[in-house]
Amino acid sequence: MGGTPCFTGTRVPFQTLLDYLEGGDSLDEFLEDFPSVSRELAVTAIQQAGDLALAHACVA
Distances in Å between the alpha carbon of 41 and those of 14, 16, 20? Predict the structure, then answer.
Protein backbone atom coordinates (compact mmCIF):
# COMPACT_ATOMS: atom_id res chain seq x y z
CA MET A 1 0.00 0.00 0.00
CA GLY A 2 2.97 2.29 -0.49
CA GLY A 3 3.44 3.29 3.14
CA THR A 4 -0.24 4.01 3.77
CA PRO A 5 -1.12 3.12 7.38
CA CYS A 6 -3.30 -0.01 7.24
CA PHE A 7 -4.93 -2.21 9.83
CA THR A 8 -2.57 -5.00 10.87
CA GLY A 9 -2.94 -8.08 8.70
CA THR A 10 -5.17 -6.31 6.15
CA ARG A 11 -4.88 -4.02 3.17
CA VAL A 12 -7.54 -1.69 4.59
CA PRO A 13 -6.18 1.83 5.13
CA PHE A 14 -6.92 3.53 8.45
CA GLN A 15 -8.03 6.55 6.40
CA THR A 16 -10.95 4.48 5.14
CA LEU A 17 -12.31 4.20 8.68
CA LEU A 18 -11.89 7.94 9.17
CA ASP A 19 -13.70 8.59 5.88
CA TYR A 20 -16.61 6.40 6.97
CA LEU A 21 -16.91 8.13 10.33
CA GLU A 22 -16.57 11.59 8.81
CA GLY A 23 -19.29 10.69 6.32
CA GLY A 24 -21.69 9.83 9.13
CA ASP A 25 -21.41 6.05 8.87
CA SER A 26 -21.18 4.00 12.03
CA LEU A 27 -18.34 1.77 13.12
CA ASP A 28 -20.67 -1.19 12.56
CA GLU A 29 -21.20 -0.15 8.94
CA PHE A 30 -17.45 0.06 8.42
CA LEU A 31 -16.93 -3.37 9.99
CA GLU A 32 -19.66 -4.88 7.80
CA ASP A 33 -17.98 -3.54 4.67
CA PHE A 34 -14.47 -4.57 5.80
CA PRO A 35 -14.80 -7.91 7.61
CA SER A 36 -11.02 -8.38 7.66
CA VAL A 37 -10.85 -5.59 10.28
CA SER A 38 -11.85 -6.71 13.77
CA ARG A 39 -13.77 -4.46 16.11
CA GLU A 40 -10.80 -4.63 18.50
CA LEU A 41 -8.40 -3.35 15.81
CA ALA A 42 -10.75 -0.53 14.82
CA VAL A 43 -11.41 0.61 18.39
CA THR A 44 -7.71 0.47 19.25
CA ALA A 45 -6.85 2.54 16.17
CA ILE A 46 -9.45 5.17 17.07
CA GLN A 47 -8.15 5.33 20.65
CA GLN A 48 -4.55 5.69 19.48
CA ALA A 49 -5.52 8.43 17.02
CA GLY A 50 -7.35 10.26 19.81
CA ASP A 51 -4.38 9.94 22.14
CA LEU A 52 -2.08 11.29 19.44
CA ALA A 53 -4.40 14.20 18.70
CA LEU A 54 -4.62 15.09 22.39
CA ALA A 55 -0.86 14.88 22.79
CA HIS A 56 -0.43 17.45 20.00
CA ALA A 57 -3.33 19.71 20.94
CA CYS A 58 -2.65 23.30 21.87
CA VAL A 59 -3.75 24.23 25.36
CA ALA A 60 -5.69 27.49 25.37
Answer: 10, 13, 16
Expressed as residue numbers, the domain containing 25 is 14-54
Q: Which amino acid is at 7?
A: F
Domain for residue 48, yes or no?
yes
In a domain, 28, yes or no: yes
2-45 pLDDT, tens digit each? 889 999 999 999 999 999 999 999 999 999 999 999 999 999 99
Q: Which of 9, 5, 3 shows the shortest CA–CA distance to 40?
A: 9
Nearest to 41 by CA among 4, 8, 5: 8
CA distance 57 to 46: 16
* Cα gap 49→3, rounded to integer Å: 17
